[in-house]
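Hey L., structure's done. Input below.
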Amino acid sequence: MSAILKFLPNLKFNKNLKSKRNTKSSKATINCPIALQWIISEERLKALKEKQNEFLESEIFDGCGFKYSLTIYPNGDGKTKIGQTRIFLRLYLQQNAKKIDAEFCLTIESAKYSNKMNHTFDKSKGWGIKCCSTEKLFDSKRKFIVDGILTIRVEGVLKVTKLMKDEEESAWNSRDFA
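Output:
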């Protein structure tokens, strides 16, 4: 605070002010844009065409207090979803991420498929939707797979609510970011 007071010498600072929080940590929200393109060979998908509850996962990327990836289940992710191709955004929350409000869009441009979604993640998990039937995924007329490749894109903003420790909050309040 002394740096601020040097620039504002007439300002009187009340040292007896107390924080409204009763806990040792507070929350901060950070907007974290994501964009990912995942290219999957038809051969890898065909290997799972007849298998239930089997999936492929993209590379795992680092975000702002979390890691994320895409997963695809070519033949369903549960007994009632056999025969459905399902795509998920999977988040791995790290220690200080309390929750993540996700607004994202899954797109397969070649098939003119696009789906916007909103979901709040409060634990590590995936969230997605049925993209098409397993039969349609492999139907060349539907153009999900073109030239032996399926290309999935995800774009969005993840609003990460983080728990700030006392030291982080103290640096924030004093504007000491060094």
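The first helix runs from residue 2 to 7. The mean pLDDT is 82.

-- N.
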